[in-house]
Amino acid sequence: MRPEPTFAWKQCIIIRNDIRMSCGKKCAQLAHAAVSAFDRCDKESRRNWISEGQKKVVLKADSERTLYELKTIAERAGISAAIITDAGLTEIPPGTVTALGLGPAKSEDLDRITGDLSLL
């Protein structure tokens, strides 16, 4: 039996739970958040995260305000963060804030920021 892998690095992707979106729409918004946060990340964090297998955790938040609060906390901690705003071409009005991507960063640092959130 193989030992459980230990992930020192991860990415947290957070979706708003207070607006109605289809499953597909949520997935697209989460993907935008993951890619955007990765693009803003430093090379060392990228390399470490990729070498471990790119762990991602998808969480939910109850409001737009929560996303912005988490973004601010993450940025103050030196963690890449990306708020996603929808173009409004399909299900929701243009300019709707839908998701937040954080990291990749050290798992323990992200846990301090997102530990109170529930899994999607």
Concise account of the structure shown:
This protein is an alpha+beta fold and 120 residues long.
How does this model look, in words?
The protein is an alpha+beta fold. It has helices spanning 23-39, 43-52, 64-76, 107-114, and strands at residues 9-16, 56-61, 81-85, 97-106, 118-119. It has a single domain (9-115), classed as Bit1 (3-Layer(aba) Sandwich). A five-stranded mixed β-sheet has the order 3-4-1-2-5, sandwiched between helices. The N and C termini lie far apart (30 Å). The model has no long low-confidence stretch (mean pLDDT 96).
Distinctive features:
five-stranded mixed sheet, 120 residues, Bit1, alpha+beta
Task: Describe the secondary structure blueprint for this structure.
Blueprint: E1 9-16, H1 23-39, H2 43-52, E2 56-61, H3 64-76, E3 81-85, E4 97-106, H4 107-114, E5 118-119
Parallel strand pairs: 1-2
Antiparallel strand pairs: 1-4, 2-5, 3-4
CA radius of gyration is: 14 Å
Per the CATH scheme, the topology name is Bit1
Low-confidence stretches: none
The tally of strands reads 5
**What share of the residues does DSSP label as strand, in percent?**
25-35%
CATH architecture: 3-Layer(aba) Sandwich
Whole-number tally of structural domains: 1
Per DSSP, the total helix count is 4
State mean pLDDT (0 to 100 scale). Answer: 96
Overall geometric form: globular
| CATH 4th-level superfamily | Bit1
The computed structural class is: alpha+beta
**CATH class identity:** Alpha Beta
Helicity range? 40-55%
- Distance linking N and C termini: 30 Å
**Strand order across the largest sheet:** 3-4-1-2-5
Biggest sheet statistics: 5 strands, mixed
- Give, in order, the helices and strands: EHHEHEEHE
